[in-house]
Amino acid sequence: MTDLLIVTAPFTHTFGPSLSPALLKACAIAGGISAKSWDLSAEFNFNYSHTDSYKSVVSWMNHPELKITADENQWYQNIVAAYADTIINKYDPKNLAVSLLTQNSQRFAEDLCYYIKLNCPKIKIILGGNGLDILQYMFHTNWANLMLNGGLADTVILGEGEYALPRVINENLTGIIQEPQLTNEQLTQVPVPDYDDYDFSLYQSYTKSYWSNNKSIKAKHDLIFLITASKGCVKDCSFCDVGKIWPKFRFRGAEQVANEIITLNKKYNASYFSFTDSLMNGGLKVFNELNEILAEKLPNTIRYDGQIICRSKKDMPEHYYKSMAEAGCYSVSVGMESGSEKVRMHMGKGSMQDDIYYSTEMLTKYGIKQNWNIIAGYPTETNEDWQQTMNLIRHWLPRTNGLLTISPIGTFLLFEGTPMTETDQYANLEIKKNIINGYASFAWSTKINPSNTFDVRYSRFQELCTYLIEYDKETYSYLESKLLSLKKQLTWYHNETKPKKVFNLSIN
Amino acid sequence: MKQNLKKFSTYLSIKTQELPNKQPKFVVTLNGVEQEPYGKENDCVMFNMLSIFGNNQLTIDFLNKKADDTKIDDNGNIINDLNLELYKFSVEDYNLTDKIKQQVKYFTCDNQFEETFGFMHKNGQLIVEFQCPIFYFLRDHIQR
């Protein structure tokens, strides 16, 4: 028997060993608790992604309005029951911590907790992660309360778990634990993640598929280890809930982050790292220090990727990009979101057109791959704005030596917990949520831009995907299933919103 | 060990139609345990119970209906009757009446299955199956 088992809950994409169980295990051990970790989400992907039911079930986890068949549900329930059985009989933990990366893990977590509580109620269940306090419209409360009041969980940690989880176990705390943000000092003292329980062979196929998209650069099939150098964001973009989760931007010391990377390199032969930071270049000075240390202590040894925002030449002079390349920066994901400066300004991103051109040129010059996230149909976005997005993409794709890829994220979604829904700052948009059967995120409309309907947003997204697939079918063929999924959502939306037939019975 | 599982307050109200000289006789069980009514208001008999975590089964057995308890006038209209109706059902403040009425199983004493949406006009058993916590049950029965 172990004091604590930490698991991840599907669905999350698997790129490499999940960070949270390894990190929380190290934190628990530092707190005097015996702990094991199980990257259950990765195992689910690994074991079942080749099956017919997997795609439907995953699509349903991400979009619960898309229902599954009775057979698919039975397939899924059998899997959850088998995982619960393994937890109870193989691990036999006193405490089970379920880590949710996003709200897409909620469905699985509900079912796993149900089976565990039904069959072994003595196990204390602790939930942590993101999306736990999102309002569930149908039940007029948030998900954390549903889970606690329903007896499916004993404790919910809202906020960071590094110090809270050991405290919950050692002090036997129950209910909602609202954890204040960790300070820079506390973050810096967090131990190096412990991956000893991981079966790294599990991730090889995923690593291969990850790398297979990077056909422009011949890459080794390295395992991808996650690194957190900062939490929160220096921006407060209108559509993003990071500011609610982590109101204040905090960062770890460059020395400590470098030490973690070096330790993982020595202990597990880790040579590829992916930063979980909302923005790697949020704290410019510390980011540059980290790059300089890595370039000096692990020259030509590791590579990494992460998210950045386009900075001005003044904020991020050329030698910063040079240091990035020397430290092993392989690829960055850029929160471009729109080609329209007007839209980006409204979002709160603050990147001017010149910043985008400068950043794109620098990354190309230093051979760093870049991937732009693009959102279709921001509330203020007009057709002209959208064409600026398309033009920006058409301009840069052939001018970046094959280093640029585009990630169409989807149509603009109105999430709870974002400035758009939580603050008065965007009240002038007069957004109507158009909640349909409890689903609110995609069918919204705005009074100031009424032509921006869900159909229009879909057609913009479709235009982008179609262009990219035509541009490079090998790289962008994955968008076909994404388009299909959105098309299903659109059909469902039309079915749900079409006027119902009314029968008039008149008596003569 | 399972006694440690959470329990959920459950409310049931059964509407009764009586004859001048006869009251309907019925038994309510929850998970096999007979339940005592806590009161009567107008023509409704009320029960407060505790459902358990997991699957639950509620039954209502109508016991004393006879063929001549249904009084009919010369035109064939029912003018008086002895019957029961599941009137309100809620768990933890979630009113499930309409949802449950769609799903109840009613087996009459002559081994027939009838869809009467909670109305019992013959001796027989009405079966209500549900899961707790109720949001866990509802998420697959209504969209959220």
Briefly note the structural class of the backbone of chain B: mainly beta
Average pLDDT value of chain B?
92
Report how far apart the termini of chain B are. Answer: 33 Å
Biggest chain pair interface: A-B, 21 and 18 residues
CATH class of the largest domain in chain A: Alpha Beta
β-strand number of chain A: 18
Assembly type of the shown chains?
heterodimer
For the biggest sheet of chain A, the summary is: 6 strands, parallel
CA gyration radius of chain B, whole angstroms: 16 Å
Label the CATH architecture of the largest domain in chain A: Alpha-Beta Horseshoe
Q: Tell me, rounded to a whole number, the average pLDDT of chain A.
A: 91
Helix and strand succession of chain B? EEEEEEEEEEHEEEEH
What percent of the residues of chain B sit in helical stretches (DSSP H or I)? under 10%
Q: Tell me, what's the shape of chain A?
A: globular
CATH topology term of chain B = Lipoxygenase-1
Low-confidence stretches of chain A: 215-219
Silhouette of chain B: elongated
CATH superfamily of the largest domain in chain A: tm_1862 like domain
Describe, in plain words, how this protein is organized in 3D.
The complex is a heterodimer of chains A (508) and B (144). A six-stranded parallel sheet of chain A has the order 2-1-3-4-7-8, sandwiched between helices. A six-stranded parallel sheet of chain A has the order 9-12-13-14-15-16. Chain A folds into two domains: 2-187, 3-Layer(aba) Sandwich (Rossmann fold), CATH 3.40.50; 213-497, pyruvate-formate lyase- activating enzyme. The N and C termini of chain A lie far apart (79 Å). Chain A has helices at residues 19-30, 40-48, 52-62, 70-91, 106-119, 143-149, 164-170, 184-188, 204-212, 242-245, 254-268, 284-297, 318-327, 341-347, 353-365, 383-396, 419-422, 454-471, 473-476, 479-497; strands at 2-8, 35-38, 93-100, 124-129, 135-136, 141-142, 155-158, 175-178, 224-227, 230-231, 250-251, 272-275, 303-308, 329-337, 369-376, 404-411, 431-432, 445-446. In chain A, α3 (52-62) packs across α4, α12 crosses α13 and α18 (454-471) packs antiparallel against α20. Chain A has 508 residues and is of the alpha/beta class. The longest helix of chain A is centred in the N-terminal third of the chain and has 22 residues, at 70-91. Chain B is mainly beta. Chain B has one domain (2-138): Lipoxygenase-1. In chain B, 8% of the residues lie in helices and 50% in strands. Chain B has two helices and 14 strands. Chain B has helices at 97-103, 134-138; strands spanning 7-17, 26-30, 33-34, 39-41, 44-52, 54-62, 71-72, 78-80, 83-91, 94-95, 105-108, 113-114, 119-120, 124-132. In chain B, the strands form three sheets. In chain B, strands 1, 4, 5, 9, 10 and 13 form a six-stranded antiparallel sheet that branches. In chain B, a hairpin with a 2-residue loop joins β9 and β10 (94-95). Chain B is elongated, with a radius of gyration of 16 Å. The model of chain B has no long low-confidence stretch (mean pLDDT 92). The chains are: A alpha/beta (508), B mainly beta (144). At the A-B interface, α5 of A face α2 of B.
